[in-house]
Amino acid sequence: MESDTFDHLDLQLLSALEVDARASFSRIAQVLGVSDQTIARRFRRLSAEGGLRVVALRDAEALGQDQWMLRLRCAPTAPPSSPTHSPNAPTPPGSAWPPAAPRSSA
After folding, report:
1. Of 12, 22, 57, 88, whose CA is between 20 and 30 Å from 30?
2. Distance between CA 97 and CA 95 in Å, rounded?
3. How far apart are CA 7 and CA 32, in angstroms?
4. pLDDT, tens digit, for every residue of 30-57?
5. What's the farthest any 2 CA atoms get from each other in the chain?
6. Contact yes or no for 28/39 (Cβ under 8 A)
7. Does this model's pTM top 0.85?
8. Strands (E), the chain
């Protein structure tokens, strides 16, 4: 994006999508007092450059379930560095850790 910040209309569009992610661009435009082309253009820009994604989530509370969200960032080539990790701990079946010793090309 050209700017690291969102302008007022961007924030209004994001708020409208939080309320009803399935609302049409023309409905959002009507509520915000701009054209539907403006909303469509802003949506495409935010999606392409701002990382906006509209996703579906089930209402876990209405279904009597707990909802958990977890985001992990992994470095698959880094060895475990946790003080609780024991090098003598059993390796789960199918696990790639610890890596096999390199084979010599003799």
Report:
1. 57
2. 5
3. 14
4. 999 999 999 999 999 998 887 788 877 7
5. 75
6. yes
7. no
8. none
